[in-house]
Amino acid sequence: MAKDLEMDFATAKFEPEIRFGLIHLAGADLLPLSDGFATAGPGEITLRLSADLPAPWAGTSMVAIHMFQFPRGKAEFDRIVAWYGEGRVKRARLPEKVSFNPDMLAIQDPPQGWMHDGFARSGRDIVHIYQSPKRGILIRLMSSAGTMLDHPLLKSVHDGLRILPAQWVADFPVQVPKPIAAADRIRTRKLTKAMVGEIAEASERAVSSLSIKKTIKPATVVAAIQARVDAMREPAEHESCDPDTMAIDLGLLWGQMLCEAKGWEWRTLTYPDGGKSLAVCSPDLSHQVNPINFIFARVVDPSKPNTCLLLFNMIVAGKAPLAAPGSLGLLN
């Protein structure tokens, strides 16, 4: 059965080297990636990597690597080779104003005995196919803007990519958090006793307004918060409710439930620009939620999805995006 993985590189990166399917990619931690997608199934593994780059390469940039084991993946290999081959052009001129040749951006030192076919679908869309009796790879390199041969993503993949013919790794490449520069760090302080007391009082008011017992499970409390937010978003109640007061009380109760369920804690945050906020933070300070703002945004704008319970469950289940300890990535 196939499995898949979506990858976001806003706060994460690859390890310096990755091995996946039939490939070894050196310098993976330095790739200018924005997002990626990987699949691994019987006889077929795919890795797609995209970049978000400044001019002159601003636009869509992508490397897609399709890898196959024969005989199980042979039919799909033949299908995808035929599909890409339909777009083959006899002559293509790259943005560098040079004619394409099959060695451009081809894998260096391919395994001996493997057949290679390199062709262009346009001056911005290059395909390389490698095949042995038991394995096959199709690599697509494309960019909608800028040059191709020195493209930051395409050239880096070209420089670091090798085929390992005896390898078949189905485990997804590991992502690790990106370090945060000192100038970009958010400073934190624990709450004063007075602030702790104010949060407790607001939580009590919210519990009373929801007509629930303090002893029920945190997830049940959050479900009640979600239901109240839904009610306040209805036209009849939306006009008459006080969003500020409700966001404070329900938001602080939401944060308290996360503290109870996951061991998070309240902190006051000071941002590099001098701004301040009250947030509930993970123990390693990798993530934060500003629950007052979170609730307020959903009360005043009914077009926003009400994800009070979804966000809570995601955090409790350990499904938050990767973030470096101390980076205080905002979840909302």
What can be said about this structure in brief?
This protein has 8 helices and 17 strands. The chain has 332 residues and is α+β, with helices and mostly antiparallel strands.
Structural class: alpha+beta
The count of domains is 2
Uncertain runs with pLDDT below 50, 5 residues or more? none
- What is the oligomer described by this structure? single chain
H and E string: EEEEEEEHEEEHEEEHHHHEEEHHE
How much of the residues is beta strand, in percent?
A: 25-35%
- What Rg is obtained from the alpha carbons, in whole angstroms? 26 Å
Number-wise, the strands total 17
Distance between the termini: 33 Å
Helix content: 25-40%
Could you describe the largest sheet, including whether it forms a barrel?
7 strands, antiparallel
Number of continuous helical runs: 8
Anisotropy-based shape = elongated
Question: How would you describe this protein?
Answer:
- This protein has helices at 74-85, 152-160, 193-210, 218-233, 235-238, 243-262, 291-300, 308-316, and strands spanning 3-8, 12-14, 17-20, 23-26, 33-41, 44-51, 61-69, 115-122, 125-131, 135-143, 161-163, 175-177, 187-190, 265-270, 276-281, 287-289, 329-330.
- The chain contains 8 helices and 17 strands.
- The strands form 4 sheets. The protein has a 7-stranded antiparallel sheet, sandwiched between helices.
- It is elongated, with a radius of gyration of 26 Å.
- It is of the alpha+beta class and 332 residues long.
- The mean pLDDT is 93.
- It folds into 2 domains: 3-176; 182-330, Four Helix Bundle (Hemerythrin (Met), subunit A).
- Strand 5 (33-41) and strand 6 (44-51) form a beta hairpin.
- The chain is 30% helix and 28% strand.
